Amino acid sequence: MTETLHKVVDELRQGEAYAPFTNDPNIFKKKFYIESYGCQMNFSDSEIVASILHTEGFGPTRNWEEADLVLLNTCSIREKAEQTVRNRLQAFRKVKENSPGMLIGVLGCMAERLKAKFLEEEKLVDLVVGPDAYRSLPSLIAETESGQKSVNVLLSREETYADISPVRLDGNGVSAFVSIMRGCNNMCTFCVVPFTRGRERSRNAESIINECRNLFEEGYREVTLLGQNVDSYDYTNADGVTVTFGPLLEQVALVSPLLRIRFSTSHPKDITDDVLHTMAKYNNICNYIHLPVQSGNTRILQHMNRTYTREWYLHKVQRIRSIIPDCGLSTDVISGFCSETEEEHQDTLSLMELCRFDMAYMFSYSERPGTLAARRFADDVSEEDKKRRLTEIINLQNGHSRESYTADIGKTFEVLIEGDSKRSDMDWCGRNSQNKMVVFPKGGLPLKKGDYVHVTIFSATSATLRGEMV
Length: 470
Ligand code: SAH
Ligand code: SF4
Ligand code: F3S
What we know:
Largest sheet: 6 strands, parallel
Bound molecules: S-adenosyl-L-homocysteine, iron/sulfur cluster, FE3-S4 cluster
Radius of gyration: 22 Å
Number of strands: 21
């Protein structure tokens, strides 16, 4: 999953969240505020939560100090992610002490991991709700309003929230996340997700396609299909017809040639040639794959229970390059996993040299309570070595990113306009198929968000391309 997922705090865009429901915000009895941390799945879940609260008469606000209900949708993936949430809760303390009616709720993976313990550790929390229990929010809120604290962290084997229309909180109106599955069965030894998100289950294919169609009709031009391991998507309908990821991708692509499709995350053990051929066949399926490698050394990969080898990964990359020659490729890397030697770390660097990723998310190993690694392996690489290895990985990747972006100078790309560039409202920004951000002058033309344009690149940094429309 992507960097936006790991560090961004998103605030609700009030006006846009109201829009699909009513023009009269006065019909809302109360106000809620929600902040999301972690991966795109969490951001997508916050949109489901907003929808559930909306039907209960809660209207959104961007100002937490005036909210009746303040929610943090939390992440447990690394120690630091949890620390950020704890610090945020401290910031709420003063205001909460002076406004007795304010409820504070913790949602998401940290709620699931800590369960009722959260209420003991953080006294100002009233509500703890796990990722599969959001439908119970209205009754839990009712309980807390009568002075109790409430917890629901039951995980489900079926819940996919398939019938709930998310309230789009990210206001660009062009790109939306569509969750296609929940949970994860992979049990990578370092990872807390199988414990916080439960068993893998796929969402009804028809409801996914309908959601994408509705988004297109509302003016959206890009959907990102979300799951921890999208290649193992597998849904059987009431007539016994099974849909796997390749065919699902194809059906979404057929919604409209003007709707771009992205997906995240692919697992190297599961991504198939069938999916690659589907990508190559449809112009509107973006040529971009996020393929987390974690390590370039086979012994460490086995230790992580990734179930592929270095050679398998390199072979997958070679298949991608041969079936989709201009495919953008990014990855995740972990430095200093249990027992990783200096030579094994060098294997990660050499794999990066071979793959030349356009972009990467890089982390040092953070032991998570309850995971297999925490129970069975010693976290024995010193903090100093983890950090130094991570710096080497980051430095190498920065060079590769710069190289990859520079190589685009002179090329022309189709870009979907997402909005004004961050720096100037004289410029548009948008992505190319390979997921690279492109910035270019508006040039006085009557264009708008959601339009496609062709842009020729004339300069590059390691994270942005600049160009001119042609
Ligand atoms: N489902 C995705 C990843 C989800 S978590 C996949 O299988 O690739 C996103 C990334 O966080 C992982 O790819 C991994 O690189 C990183 N990560 C997960 N657990 C971690 C841990 N305990 N310490 C450091 N990084 C971790
Ligand atoms: Fe975690 Fe592995 Fe599942 Fe990804 S595939 S969520 S890293 S257990
Ligand atoms: Fe996502 Fe963090 Fe949970 S990465 S699945 S929010 S632990």
